[in-house]
């Protein structure tokens, strides 16, 4: 297998465009795309035709405008290329208009009250910065999705807007440092993806996995992750075959799949691609999750992407590695070695710190979901409190700058930013704290609070926007300063003084941190219902408006969609739980009790006075627990009826978080207790032991 040849073989990238398009057309297309201008009609027609010919060669019969509505997953509607001719035949045709713009009937996508159904039509517009590709006989065209009144209905458009905002403000800073060559600054992202692989039969045997994507019942198995033997452990043959297939599929689509390994929990694994521009990384992560599921199917496996498929063992997250790079290839979060580079690095670095401190709420809510609530703060993932890890060396530098003294044991004198070089930062020592939600790892920040199913668009919209706005503030100050280096130094020191409370290098999992964070005045938004209302806090609306990312209406609609989604997810989980409790678990336990009673009767009939103590104990225990579960199920039914009467979705989400979820946990506890003492052949679905060690 020739991997370089296979790589991106199904992608309509620059190389293919150069091969397939006349020279002048290619040049003007490239220029138009790089300058972010709309394509004119004649150019679009030529490109569309070349794209279609190439796609047909690859076996495509259809095309689709592939977009990312607010459902969090992607959407596609396939149209064939066929066009009838006068003689009753067809030709394969694809026009520039069809390439550039589509009109899916969009009435069934969530819009958060923004769009009444009578004005249902939205349109999709090609995002030429993300390449088209062929998959399963269809040409996929990555697009953005808007309503006709121009309101944004997807996750991609605001992501692109946030990238623009960052580009604009970061360039202002670069100019201040005398950089006149960079034409653009792009945020880059590498998203490490965690997932579980189980045997497909296990998936189909459990309603909770099928309807909710996670187990709603399940007692602890005899073996969990306590031996720590799975993390980086040898990969089993079936998993390894899956991974090889997956890599190949991803490579064909131009996705830079790089690292794969076993994760902490049994049956848990990770895949990390090499980083790329944020919107491409976001498209590719969506595709990666989709391909994972498909390849798993081929291997008779099921890929679980839920944040917490199993209680009691680690859930799955997604680490969002983020940095900023110039079009000339300079990573702006790389400290560099000259005084100017150091000064510039410290400014960008402090911009991120300040942004994270001022907008903890936005980062927190960007990772809020019913699924992720089970992870954050669960001593396996960072807590719900946002803080930044910067490592010992940087902390020393930051402290020295703040106190205006020389860094301990390093430089010989007091540093002046922009004039002196910083003490060397050893790269590999920065990434040892795995508990921090937002960690500086040498030349990038790693945002570790994302859940595994998330579209990375949401969190990256926030990161780009808050950093852009902070850079704007910095540029405003520095552009008007008479002495640049002095002003730079002062600005960095002031920023340290004001925002150092967000820096925490200790263990974020320990209880003391929660108390300490509270003392520092950091936010601790424990669940989704608590976090989401911050989306429309006045300071945040103002930020989105300033940076041109969301209008007030768009922000409100997004908040509502996320709240609605939360309520719907918990509601589905509840209904699934009631179904399993009443139709599966209750009758199974009752059957076991009946047989135990028969056993008591038979034993007595045959032996008279023989001991039936264990049977009787079990009968009593199971009978009591089954009854408690039954009562709890009825109680939950009443709660669900009450939830329907909530005045609005925000109130409803709080009701689910505070009333319904605790009741679900209680119901589950009764069932799990019964599972541990019910004979195997009665239990109505596979246990944790069966599922986790099924591959
Ligand atoms: P780990 O976090 O497991 O130690 P690495 O640090 O090697 O792994 O990288 C994790 C991810 O960070 C990879 O996807 C990698 O491509 C990405 N990454 C590396 N440099 C950058 C950067 N400048 N911008 C964004 N992502 C980056
Ligand atoms: Mg990592």
UniProtKB/TrEMBL annotation:
UniProt name for this protein: Glutamine synthetase type III
Domain GS catalytic residues, every copy: 155-585
InterPro entries in the record: Gln-synt_C, Gln_synt_N, Gln_synth/guanido_kin_cat_dom, Gln_synth_cat_dom, Gln_synth_gly_rich_site, GS_Type-3, GSIII_N
Originating species: Candidatus Borkfalkia ceftriaxoniphila
Alphabetical list of PROSITE patterns matching this protein: GLNA_ATP, GS_BETA_GRASP, GS_CATALYTIC
Residue ranges occupied by any GS beta-grasp domain in the UniProt entry: 61-150
Family: Belongs to the glutamine synthetase family.
Single annotated GO MF: glutamine synthetase activity
